[in-house]
Amino acid sequence: MRDHRYDILFEPVRIGPITARNRFFQVPHCNGMGYRDPSGEAAMRRTKAEGGWAVVCTEQVEIHPTSDIGPFIELRLWDDQDMPAIARIAEQIHEGGALAGIELAHNGLNSPNLISRETPLAPQHLPVVSWNLDPVQARAMTKADIVDLRKWHADSVHRSLKAGYDIVYVYAGHAIGGLHHFLSRRYNNRTDEYGGSLENRVRLIREILEDTREIADGKAAVACRISVDELLGDDGITRSEMEDVFGLIGEHPDLWDLVLGSWEDDSVTSRFGPEAEQEPYVTGLKQLTTKPVVGVGRFTSPDTMVRHVKSGILDLIGAARPSIADPFMPNKIERGDLADIRECIGCNICVSGDFTMSPIRCTQNPTMGEEFRRGWHPERISVKGSDSSVLVVGAGPAGLEAARALGNRGYPVTLTEASRVLGGRVARESKLPGLSAWIRVIDYRLQQLDRLDNVEVYRESPMSTDDILEYGFDHVVIATGASWRGDGVGRWHTHPIEIDSSTSVFTPDDIMAGARPAGKRVVLFDDDHYYLGAVVAEMLAKEGFAVTLVTPVPQVSQWTTNTMEAHRIRARIMEAGVDVRTDTAVTAVDATGVQTACRFTGRTGHLDADAVVMVTARLPHDELYTQLHERSDDWAAAGVRSVTGVGDAWAPSTIAAAVWSGHRFAEELDVPRNDDPVPFRREVTQLSIEPVFSTPVSVS
Fold first, then answer.
1. Sign of the Cα pseudo-torsion (434, 436, 441, 444, in order)
2. Which residue numbers are catalytic?
3. Which of 193, 202, 412, 638 has minimal Cβ neighbours within 10 Å of its Cβ?
4. Mind listing the UniProt keywords for this protein, alphabetically (predicted)?
5. Which domains can be identified in the chain, with CATH numbers?
6. How many Cβ atoms are within 10 Å of 217's Cβ, its own excluded?
């Protein structure tokens, strides 16, 4: 039963000519599918609509070849050829029961145009601000270019309406949209009527809003997404200046979508920012307009949502990441099933899909991005295909998810854990600095398991091969995790390095178990390049150790550029006093410290140390899996039909990958397999019927 404290969240909200049935608004967010996998995106957006989001939006949609943000895979609306994909997404959102929003974008300085090879356009002559630092420079737009831009945007509005969208965006946020670049002093040094004063810098936004409203004309609502503060001081848009912007165009759109700074500032990981972090920046702006306002803040608490509405900060609760972790969060709040919500942990593994040009994924929600490809659904799973019993060995993220999903299918499941603590690596890592929110991965699954009478959980129950064969389970899942190596093997070294037996070498497992060096000088060799090396270095430094982090790549925790936190990680460890040596490998450990080598020149060096922490690679705990397969001849007599490794016990990877692996086993158990080598649906490009050459070609 719904808690009436949350009734306000389910009030309808008028947005221009349309009405949102509640206050839950899935704001535009990227997903790594875009123009390549539009059916995949359509199914993903539809799932959210089914889950109770009143409005479901696309990601940014390129409106012209001069707005090509490749290699990133967003949606396109360059011409009518893109209409079928765009229309399919709107259709699926509507079938799910939500209003459909489309975020039209001309990316300006953010468009290297690597695919279209058109010249980028911007307020002034500047290098593009693309993620890859592409050696491309934008051309300062002429008055004719501005006229063209207005026409391109108008054409895309017409196409959006024809495709069935209910809300059409004018995008001026995140330091991405070209309109943002015109508004910001950082990028606009023009001296004509589009530069200089705030009124001039806001002119193009105003003109395009007016164009869009004229075209929409009661057929759709017009939204404006805008950065309320670039966090650059007087060098960029400021919060106080934004109040003047609202004084100039506050009534122009039907909806304001407020964001903070760049995308990196607006989607901060939980390690570096709390829920509702944007609140101080957006508070008060709603009072400057009669139009509804939506904002974000990784909202996971219904109480926080209610406070934002009741206190007049927001009209609509915007979400990207929480809607990814739990597409059905609105429905669960409405039903009063708060314990069923898969709360976002703020790890930004979802963001990495966009940066790696791959379908979106989520640590909490393993079905994200698989709705079309594999037919997975976050709230529904097929009933069991047999009366088979399943033993899951290991209660880490993979084992817990496998047991939960198998239990929901109706299988009798026995989950065993060798230790007293359930949760595996998540239980350990969530105790590290900044990672406490990650415990939600375990909490959610334990709450769900408590409700399943067909799942039995046994702690402090190590399993041997004889035990498993004796008990006679039909299917055995090995989810025993992995351990960090202490021999230096990783990406840089594929064989163990020389380590003096008198030295103290620790792994992250040792540190998380409470072990600490006897001396104060510590060298941490990070050849993993995700978050853990820097987290451990920061923790040891704050405990008083003199830490030197050595990594063979140019940047600390380099892969976290894909989760938009690399710059914050570097700042955090600098503030903690960690000395950093990049482009350097540890080549050996001797009695007094470590030997090093420059990755470029091979020049050797030495760092004195009392202890070394190796954050390199992991080894799967696959002994039980291997032993069982060595005794496969005994399976039939014991009633065992399959033995499967999942998660880190199969191949160490991210927590998200472990959860996905456990879920995949549960989804596919007893499901007939075909002979197709590709285990998921995909969209294959249709070949053009146009001739390769339209004119004769001579070869010299």
1. negative
2. 30, 171, 174, 266
3. 193
4. Flavoprotein, FMN, Iron, Iron-sulfur, Metal-binding, Oxidoreductase
5. 4-355 (3.20.20.70), 390-481+621-668 (3.40.50.720), 486-619 (3.50.50.60)
6. 11
